[in-house]
Design goal:
The protein is mainly beta and 175 residues long. The chain has one domain (23-174): Lipid/polyisoprenoid-binding, YceI-like (Lipocalin), CATH 2.40.128. The protein has helices at residues 2-17, 72-79, and strands at 21-33, 40-52, 57-63, 68-69, 91-98, 110-122, 125-138, 141-150, 167-174.
Length: 175
């Protein structure tokens, strides 16, 4: 019994160390929306992302005021109470898992098609989402990319007339 206990004491830390959590504070989230007057496009290059290579747990956090536009007036309208209301809802988050993380070999260069499932929270509203993307392993470096569309109305965001009901989101990050 004593030998089993000693084995457990030494084995548990080994298994805990065999997983790795990657993190970055420079994930990029870009969105694009067609409007009648002018297309709206903004990028947030200071989003936080974490990824656990064994469990597939993945999180993103983006400050809404971190989205930068070329047109300053468009940026003001985006943050106003009538649209994103970034004072009341200062951040957007995603928390979920890469469902097929077991298919990714983090020690071998390659491009892997992955599917994330989780909860996207924007404007104080949480919605279950399932999206596809790619995870690339290249010389020990990990990168992720996903392009998908959301409907702002599903998150309680009032869409002004002339703005598309769908917004294209592109997420990229490197560890």
């Amino acid at each position: 019994m004593k030998k089993i206990l000693i084995l457990i004491v030494f084995a548990v830390p080994f298994f805990a160390l065999s997983q790795k959590t990657y993190s970055t504070k420079s994930a990029k989230i870009k969105f694009f929306s067609h409007t009648v007057a002018e297309d709206a496009e903004a990028t947030n290059s200071q989003s936080v992302c974490t990824l656990n290579d064994k469990t597939g747990a993945i999180t993103f956090l983006a400050l809404v005021k971190g989205f930068k536009f070329e047109n300053n007036l468009m940026e003001q309208h985006f943050n106003d109470a009538e649209y994103m209301n970034s004072t009341k809802f200062p951040k957007s988050t995603f928390a979920g898992t890469i469902a097929n993380i077991a298919t990714v070999n983090f020690t071998k260069n390659g491009t892997y098609n992955v599917t994330t499932e989780g909860t996207l929270t924007m404007h104080g509203v949480a919605q279950k989402v399932k999206q596809s993307g790619t995870l690339v392993v290249a010389n020990g470096k990990i990168s992720l990319k996903s392009v998908f569309k959301i409907k702002p109305k599903a998150f309680g965001i009032k869409v002004p007339e002339g703005i598309s009901d769908d917004i294209e989101i592109t997420v990229t990050c490197s560890f």
